[in-house]
Write a structure and sequence with these properties.
Blueprint (H helix, E strand, L loop, with lengths): L2 H45 L3 E9 L5 E9 L1 H7 L9 H4 L5 H13 L3 E7 L5 E10 L6 E8 L1 H75 L5 H25 L8 E3 L1 H16 L3 E6 L7 E3 L1 H17 L5 E12 L1 H4 L8 E10 L6 H4 L19 H11 L3 E7 L3 E9 L22 E5 L3 H13 L3 E5 L2 H8 L7 E5 L7 H11 L4 E6 L8 H4 L4 E5 L4 H12 L2
Parallel strand pairs: 7-9, 13-14, 13-15, 15-16, 16-17
Antiparallel strand pairs: 1-2, 1-5, 3-4, 4-5, 6-8, 9-10, 10-12, 11-12
Length: about 575
């Protein structure tokens, strides 16, 4: 070998050695990179909070997923499932109670290549709920599926509790409302009993005073008659009558407060009513109180009981006078007001519509806000003992509410008080009042059937009719009245109490008119449920008289009904 050949051989050797070194270096670099990549992958794989598992699916002869092997799992896998040391193990060995649902789910992902996202319960893992995202990885021939999942048991239970809470919310609200209603009802009952106690106490006080006047006077009259001292009889008859009239007025006020009085509601000219009372009011108020009357012209008719409205106006004026002991100024005004639905629905039970407003205002002592809240309570009064019953404003309140109106009070201590009465307007024209008969009218022998279960009242009515020249026949109850009505006897008028035992007077009248269609009926009543508003209780040829009544009032009413 020549020296040249030797040099060539050495060069070739060095070249081969360099190539080999380069290849070895490349392989070392590649291995180093692969190792670094695997370490990075492993670090990321185990750093993920979600559980990750790579599964290898196995199928039965029918092509259905029968098992899967845990190829690889991350650290969070154990945290979420509670399973450990499962790599290279088949799931049916590692978790014998695994549900077929999970096998079918992963098998579907493997065979179709379509990823799935589900939330489902795992019974074999203590009924935990998992949010799972499954997808196929690698060569489809390897049947590898990756599953990323998190334990959402706490969230699902919270959602379930919230769902159950929402489902039972209505029931629990109803129960809470019912419980509150029970408490409120107990409070209302306590307040009602307190009000009843105040009512009965005041009622007993006033009635006992009045009954003492009646009973004492009657007892003295009996003694004077037995001893022949006739000169004293008339005096105590007047005393007994005065006490009885006071008792009647008290009963009327109580019925008004309870909205149970018998109202004769008709279209009424309120301006004319005020004008008719003006002179009387000036005399009542006295010289120290100046009265101004401001009436709006063209005032529409009001739907009310004129007598009760007169009493209310008189009562308010007397209250105003008493609130100005050193004199003052009082104003009576009328106007109209239209209440829209928003104003009407303010807890005052007012219907939207047109109202006549009658106002009484003074510049007297006024009232505090606390006093105003109590003025409508029965027997509450700011007047000294013996100067007021405490039923005036409660009577006005009851009367107005019963007739569809309302009352409002505005007052300030040291400034004065204004009371406004809201009375519904009427679409009908004002009815001209019938003139009063100057003397007590007498009968012409007409036959009047008196049906009254109270023997004393029946005796008084029958005797009055006999004295007036009528022919009276009497019945204690409806059955006895039927026996008379079924005869051929002429009956020109039936006077019946409304509150009869068994069939009431209104039912009696209905049945009586089936055989006597033109029978006229005069009802007398102290109080009867359903007869509070006469226009809704009376039919054609019927009228009503409220107990107690004067003899001349009965005589006039009977004559009016029998006059063609």
């Amino acid at each position: 070998m020549t020296q040249l050949d030797l040099r060539r051989a050495i060069v070739q050797r060095d070249e081969r050695s360099a190539v080999l070194e380069a290849e070895i270096a490349s392989r070392i670099a590649a291995e180093t990179a692969r190792t670094a990549s695997e370490e990075h992958y492993r670090h990321l794989f185990n750093a993920v909070d979600a559980g990750i598992s790579v599964l290898q699916m196995r199928y039965d002869a029918d092509g259905r997923a029968a098992d899967y092997r845990f190829v690889e799992v991350n650290r969070a896998f154990s945290t979420h499932t509670g399973l450990s040391d499962v790599e290279d193990r088949w799931v049916r060995d590692a978790l014998p109670g695994v549900e077929q649902y999970w096998l079918d789910l992963y098998g579907e992902v493997d065979l179709t290549g379509q990823s799935r996202r589900v939330q489902h319960i795992a019974s074999a893992l203590d009924n935990r709920w998992f949010d799972v995202h499954a997808f196929r990885i690698g060569d489809p021939a390897d049947h590898h599926v990756a599953a990323l999942f998190t334990d959402i048991t706490d969230r699902r239970r919270s959602e379930q509790e919230l769902h159950e809470l929402n489902e039972t919310l209505e029931q629990r609200i109803a129960e809470a409302i019912a419980e509150r209603e029970v408490t409120a009802e107990a409070l209302r009952q306590a307040q009602k009993m307190e009000a009843i106690g105040q009512l009965t106490g005041g009622l007993a006080h006033d009635f006992n005073n009045m009954l003492t006047g009646v009973i004492g006077s009657i007892d003295l009259i009996r003694r004077f008659l037995e001893s022949g001292r006739m000169d004293q009889v008339h005096r105590y008859l007047e005393a007994a009558e005065t006490s009885a009239q006071r008792a009647a007025a008290l009963t009327a006020r109580l019925l008004a407060f309870g909205r149970r009085q018998s109202l004769d509601i008709r279209p009424t000219d309120v301006n004319q009513l005020v004008r008719g009372m003006e002179d009387f009011l000036r005399r009542t108020l006295g010289e120290q109180v100046s009265l101004a009357v401001a009436l709006v012209p063209g005032l529409p008719p009001a739907s009310t009981d004129a007598n009760q409205l007169e009493n209310a106006l008189l009562n308010l004026c007397i209250n105003a006078r008493d609130a100005m002991p050193d004199g003052g100024h009082l104003t009576i005004e009328t106007t109209t007001m239209q209440l829209d639905p928003g104003f009407a629905q303010t807890g005052e039970d007012l219907q939207p519509g047109d109202y006549v407003v009658l106002s009484v205002s003074d510049n007297g002592q006024g009232m505090s806000a606390e006093t105003i809240t109590k003025v409508f309570e029965p027997f509450f009064t700011t007047k000294p003992i013996g100067q007021g019953t405490g039923l005036g404003l409660s009577m006005i309140y009851g009367f107005l509410k019963q007739s569809g109106g309302h009352v409002r009070i505005y007052s300030e201590l040291g400034v004065g008080t204004s009371v406004k009465l809201f009375v519904p307007c009427s679409d009908a024209p004002v009815v001209v009042a019938e003139p009063r008969v100057a003397s007590m009218p007498v009968g012409a022998g007409e036959t009047v059937l008196v049906v009254e279960d109270d023997a004393a009242v029946r005796m008084v009515i029958v005797n009055v009719l006999d004295e007036l020249g009528y022919t009276a026949c009497e019945a204690e109850h409806a059955e006895e009245a039927f026996a008379i009505l079924q005869t051929s006897r002429q009956i020109d008028l039936m006077i019946s109490d409304v509150g009869l035992p068994g069939l009431n007077g209104r039912q009696l009248a209905e049945i009586a008119r089936q055989t006597r269609p033109g029978l006229k009926v005069l009802f007398v009543t102290g109080y009867a449920q359903g007869a509070a508003v006469r226009s809704g209780f009376l039919d054609h040829g019927m009228d009503m008289l409220t107990k107690p009544f004067q003899i001349d009032t009965l005589a006039i009413k009977v004559r009016q009904m029998l006059t063609p």
